[in-house]
Amino acid sequence: MTDDRVVVALDVGGTGMKCALVGPDGVVVRTERHPTDAARGPAAVVDTILDVAAGLADKARADGLSPIAVGIAVPGVVDEARGVAVWSANVGFRDVPLRDLTVARLGLPTALGHDVRVGGLAEARLGAGRGTGHVLFVAIGTGIAAAHVVDGMAAVGAHGAAGEIGHILVRPDGPRCGCGRPGCLEAVASASAIGRRYAELTGETTDAPVTAAEVAERAATGEQLAGQVWREAIAALADGLASGQALFDVATIVLGGGLAQAGDRLLTPLRAALHERMTFHREPQLVAAALGDEAGCLGAALLALDAVGVRDHQEKR
Amino acid sequence: MTDDRVVVALDVGGTGMKCALVGPDGVVVRTERHPTDAARGPAAVVDTILDVAAGLADKARADGLSPIAVGIAVPGVVDEARGVAVWSANVGFRDVPLRDLTVARLGLPTALGHDVRVGGLAEARLGAGRGTGHVLFVAIGTGIAAAHVVDGMAAVGAHGAAGEIGHILVRPDGPRCGCGRPGCLEAVASASAIGRRYAELTGETTDAPVTAAEVAERAATGEQLAGQVWREAIAALADGLASGQALFDVATIVLGGGLAQAGDRLLTPLRAALHERMTFHREPQLVAAALGDEAGCLGAALLALDAVGVRDHQEKR
Question: What are the protein's GO molecular function terms (chains A, B) (predicted)?
């Protein structure tokens, strides 16, 4: 039996939008990328989102496919129940009723989701957490955020703000976080925090500061200060993940975001540090994300499929 | 229409069992208390549990009621899916298939739950969190544990170990926890940790150490060391609850356990300290538990009602 149904999926970021047509089996049949160009202001960004979504639906029909729903992922605070992009610094959104706008324009059922939560959904159902039921997806980049996914559903919270693992306390005497509090995980162990800490210790102040990936690289070649910064970050990450595991008791922790591209330089010492912190806990698997920067778009597609009750793609558990 | 259905509910603790017959509307129609007498060994405790449950079912029938299910709450690690009391120091259980044993003896559908998780279930559905959808119940006594309840279901975790908020890191330089790690919330802010810290600072070493309630009392009368210990504990609790809120984003935090009996001496400063820590977060209500030591037994009853698909009692949300 052939299935001509597809969903239109968009992952809207601060610089670009990753877009796709995805079948009920989770297979991507077409992808597109478009600039967000957020400097134009939120109204123009919304127009672009609607144009791109409508364009993809038209292309689907031209190819003999039937678009059945739309899924859109955005960063920031997202009220998924009401379909409203409550607040997003990157994209300039403030209380944008993106779901209703999309329904009005395309006439298709639409789901709005949070970028990290839908990324976690995709990793849990189609990626590195597949088949394990209880997954914590942790994206480590400029910031740190997480999605707790149980049986293929990501926890949203009472106000659309669940999963902010970057803001759990790990170092009360540590640096002040962007959120205003001292010692948040994000202030100590995000990719940007690692670069900052290294610059602070070495006194290197150039236009292009050393990145976390370079710190990991230099640590691997035996550079002492880089080694210290990297070890401190690993210890803080392990503390944060151990606190998360105490609360969530997941089977699998999936690490994504830019820092996860450090691969075994991150995973090997982090696994050891996490193991050391597991006392009464059941120890989770710690694995790298499998879907790369497509996770958000695939997750938006899953939200859309869920919205119309289609879950053929999902792994049996 | 009269409803003659009841469930048999038992909350098995280290010293006593709280038992009840509960109707589908959550109303308790009979209560009993029995000693656990754990020193007799786990086999004898299991026999007592089965005798008490069978006795309650018989009394229900004698009163013209129809027992339709059994709910049992136990402490420790509980595999709710398999109905096995995996491990409990208090009661001496180790891999006891309590659900199947109860089904075999009483011939009624039976649900096994974790004492804090079912306590949270009851507070969320019938108690202080009623009507708010997303609840974090935190029990502070000898230890600290939590239950995250969303839409009337408590998160269990992949291995039955979710909710261990007592073991999130809050003070890396703090005292060592019973679990073996330094600086866990429980090692700094449980009722026993507060008593210990006060004894340490004052050098008071008597057979009956000063309790956390007394520390709160002495702090209220202006005793300086007691004030310091109480403030340190409040700050650590606020840090722990703020980390929990970052991850869970609940509408309501319900405080239970022995320490919550300190009432406004705890709640007023803790609300202020939590407020100070809310940056990007949506601030939860912070309230005292409403069901006292009956929460576990009521929660066991809710589990039993859920097991047979009866949820008449539940608040609309």
Answer: kinase activity
For residues B216 and B175, state if they share a domain.
Answer: yes
Which residues on chain A are in Cβ contact (under 8 Å) with B180? 279
**Rounded Cα gap, residues A54 and A51, in angstroms:** 5
Q: How many CB atoms within 10 Å of residue A62?
A: 8
Residue B126 lies in a domain: no
Contacting A with CB below 8 Å, chain B residues are 77, 132-134, 146, 148, 150, 155-172, 179-181, 239, 242-244, 246-251, 277, 279-282, 284
Cα distance from A228 to chain B (closest Cα, Å)? 18
Q: Which residues of A touch B281 (CB under 8 A)?
A: 161, 164, 167
Q: Are both A51 and A192 inside the same structural domain?
A: no
Q: CA end-to-end span of chain B, whole Å?
A: 24
- B40 contact partners, CB below 8 Å, separation of at least 6: none
On chain A, the residues whose CB falls within 8 A of the CB of B242 are 169, 181
Contacts of A101 (CB under 8 A, 6+ apart): A46, A50
Minimum CA–CA partner of B248 in chain A: A162
What is the per-residue pLDDT across A124-172, written as a single tens digit (0 to 9) for each?
999 999 999 999 999 999 899 999 999 999 999 999 899 999 999 999 9
Residue B90 has pLDDT above 90, yes or no: no
- Domain CATH for B230: 3.30.420.40
CB contact under 8 A, B243 and A169: yes
Distance from CA of A146 to the nearest CA of B (A): 8
What's B316's DSSP letter?
P
In this structure, are residues B307 and B140 in contact, taking their beta carbons and an 8 Å threshold? no
- Domain-embedded: residue A138: yes
Domain extent at residue A41: 5-120+293-307
B285 to chain A: closest CA residue: A158
What does residue B36 show for φ and ψ, rounded to 5 degrees?
-80, -40
**What is the reported pLDDT for A82?**
94
Please answer whether residues B143 and B150 qualify as being in contact, where contact means their C-beta atoms are separated by less than 8 angstroms: no
- Kindly write down the DSSP assignment for every residue of A87-100, as one continuous string: EETTTTEEEE-HHH
Q: Which residue of A has its CA nearest to B155?
A: A248
Residues A161 and A195 in one domain: yes
Q: Is B315 within the bounds of a domain?
A: no
Which residues of chain A does B156 touch, with a Cβ-Cβ cutoff of 8 Å?
Answer: 249
Q: Which residue of B has its CA nearest to A238?
A: B169
Inter-chain contact B132–A239, Cβ cutoff 8 Å? no
Q: Do B179 and B68 share a domain, yes or no?
A: no
The pLDDT tens digits of the residues spanning A191-241 come to 999 999 999 999 877 777 789 999 999 999 999 999 999 999 999 999 999
Nearest residue in chain B measured CA to CA from A237: B169
Instruction: Report residue A109 as tokens.
Output: 């059922």
Residues A139 and A276 in one domain: yes
Number of domains in chain A: 2
Residue A117: CA atoms inside 13 Å, Cβ hemisphere, count? 28
Is the separation of the CB atoms in B227 and B221 below 8 Å? no
Tell me whether residues A170 and B172 touch, CB distance under 8 A.
yes
The answer to whether the Cβ–Cβ distance between B158 and A239 falls below 8 Å is no
